[in-house]
Amino acid sequence: MPPYIAHDPDHRLWVLSGPASSYVLHLDDEDRLRGLHWGPVLTLEQAASLLERPLPRRQFEDPADGALALDTAGAMRYGHAAVQVRFADGVRDLELRWTGETRSAHELALTFSDRHYPLTIEAHFRVHADTDVMERHLVLRHTGTEAADGPVTVVRADSATWNVPRLNGYRLSQVHGQWGAETQLTRTELPYGETVLSSRRGTTSHHANPWVMLDDGTATEDHGRVHSAALAWSGSWQLTVQRLPTERVAVSAGAGHSPITPQLPPGAELRTPVSAAAYTEGGFGGAGRAWHRYLLDHVLPHPREVRPVLYNSWEATEFDVGIEGQSALAERAAALGVELFVMDDGWFGARTHDAAGLGDWTPNPERFPDGLTPLIDRVHELGMRFGLWVEPEMVNPDSDLYRAHPDWVLHHLTRRRTEARNQLVLNLARPDVAAWMYDRLDELLTKNDIDFLKWDFNRPFTEAGWPDAEGDPEALWTDHVNHLYAVIDRLRATHPHLRIESCGSGGARLDPGILARTDQMWTSDNTDALDRLDIQHGFSQLYPARVMGAWVTDSPNPYTRRSLPLDFRFHVAMAGVLGIGGDLTRWTDPELARAAELVAAYKRVRPLVQHGLQYRLRAPGDGELSAVQYLAADGTEAAVLVTRRARRFGHADPALPLRALAPDARYRDADTGARHHGAVLLSHGLPLTLTPNDNASALVHLVRED
Q1: Partners of 59 in beta bridges
Q2: Residue 355: burial class (beta carbons within 10 Å; 0-12, 13-18, 19+)
Q3: To 5 degrees, how large is the angle CA 395–CA 549–CA 509?
Q4: Rounded CA gap, 385 and 500, in Å?
Q5: What's the pLDDT tens digit per position in 69-85?
Q6: How far apart are CA 682 and CA 678, in angstroms?
Q7: Torsion-angle region of residue 304: left (phi > 0), alpha (psi -120 to 50) or beta?
Q8: Is 93 a catalytic residue?
Q9: How many Å apart are CA 325 and CA 333, to the nearest integer?
Q10: Is-contact 562 556, C-beta < 8 A?
Q11: Phi, psi of 538 (to 5 degrees)
């Protein structure tokens, strides 16, 4: 293949290539950075031939509109501009000139400066040898002096604009949702104009997720070309997909939301988060596998680890937490084969209900008179790791922390403080709050042998002000997230054994930015296995099973009151990082025995699920069957999880065609011993032997014999 980053100085052209795709950049005569190509691999010579094609000319239209990879406000460009500023004298247009480049085998930085004002913009690009996912970000610098120049107001600074090539049509894939129903997949025709996806809540949100996929309307799970882009940011964000009447389409992704406009004083810089994107072939499944591999290999802090089976006490006890009850649950969990025991909310301060104690991160002396050590020691004696729930960015007004520091929360002096779930948001943008948070959590981890934190974030921002004279309410939206990242990074450096699950009242903090510093995600507070099929299907479009926390809980489900078989609940949860959250003291002996068998079965296929290639065989809405396959990278093993919602009388379950097996190989069912030819499994499918009842399910583990 061509070099990862190739440069043609005569044509002022760069070709950035992954294993199977290229992105071509070109500086035109006005120093505008254009995106010439985003698709299959091109050589420099092939890319240069694109310059021979004339630009379309239309009255009152800029021929570069929709084609700029660094899309700045100015001239005759009237659509969404990725970079928008306002200088001290009120001028909003940018006129950039290229001033140079720095380049290595995998990274490129192109520097531009405004022709009149003291502002430079660096456009950074990074490619990888093993994936077609490319990364980009910007750095804006105010190069003026305090005496001569005022601040630059940053109206918009998107990390990247991705230029989609001309297609015969445009279909947009995204996920939407709400609490308890996150990551619901939708595919719709892209309308003309600007389609804006965003969160204004201070966190990623339940309601949308910062990624999109585009195809020409004909891609399927297994076939077709797909362009996709995502943003690595855990605060407010915005993705703008622009379709012009000229049929040019561009995706701009960046942090922040209107009308937040941070100030850039002289000498300061603004570094945007990473936006990543991929061109892939092989349909939506191929796109998903590319993102899974990228996140596993280049984003997660410990990608090769196998995540343990966990037990969480929340649904069993809620706030009724004590050493005897937790020890009893731990003993039953260990007998099932659980490897990580997590005590949830209610262990600290005056936290006997959700209206008190949040922020006081010391063990409740009545519930834990000798601290956490006796429970931690018991959990470790049982052969499990110990985890703890925390929500350090929040505070109850009824807490010692709030009484001591009422000014530490987001607020305006002239407005009431809106409580949600009886809590307020700490202003983590404040350096003193960030220092307190690190010190308190470091003390908790130092004094107690804690292996795992479930880090929750249960409510969005309101009254996002900073009344102190030294505070900047415009910057707090980004500083909160950056300080959160810094606290987690520092904790992990100080306590290298620590592992963290990101939780946002379910799936409200899910994005590649938080994944760079946590080990798994809490997918949704809704643990109903039928609802989880849709949630997990949308989750898997971008995110790998290795980070998807999934619990088996009681039946009837505590939220939906739906009753489902134990096997069905387990098989749905096995599609990710298996956890158990039911009240084990109420499970019958046969249920406990069967649960232990299912945990052992999961452990046998866990390396395939968490690190294998995922193939979505049947989507939850595609008839009554839903199925997903996981294949070892070397092709030697496969696991298939299949569920059936309802059985139609007189209709047998169809065989399930598998994917990517070796046609000339034979595969043995590890449980039944049945043998299958790879070619037959690919063409005629895997015969299913589900029980003849509604909500039936199965796990099939295939081992290649040769």
Answers
A1: none
A2: middle
A3: 45
A4: 13
A5: 999 998 888 889 999 99
A6: 6
A7: alpha
A8: no
A9: 12
A10: yes
A11: -65, -40
7 strand-pairing partners? 14
Query: Which amino acid is residue 314, in one-letter code?
Result: W
What number is the average pLDDT over the span 385-397?
98
Residue environment code for 267-284, b if the CB has 16+ CB neighbours within 10 A, otherwise e: eeebbbbbbbbbbbbbbb
Classify 597 in phi/psi space as left (phi over 0), alpha (psi -120 to 50) or beta: alpha
Helix (H) or strand (E) holding 520, with range, is strand 520-522
Phi-psi region of 584 (alpha: psi -120 to 50; beta: other; left: phi over 0): alpha
- For residue range 450-507, list pLDDT tens digits in order: 999 999 999 999 999 999 878 889 999 999 999 999 999 999 999 999 999 999 999 9
Number of Cβ atoms within 10 Å of the Cβ of 547 = 26
Sign of CA dihedral 557, 560, 562, 565: negative
Question: Is residue 149 annotated as part of the catalytic site, yes or no?
Answer: no
Catalytic pick among 114, 398, 525, 653: 525
Sign of CA dihedral 285, 214, 159, 238: negative
Catalytic residue among 158, 360, 456, 511: 456
**Separation of alpha carbons 275 and 254, rounded Å:** 7
pLDDT at residue 61 greater than cutoff 80: no
Cα 498 from chain centroid (whole Å): 20
Q: Which residues, in sequence order, are bridge partners of residue 86?
A: 153
Encoded amino acid at 524, one letter: S
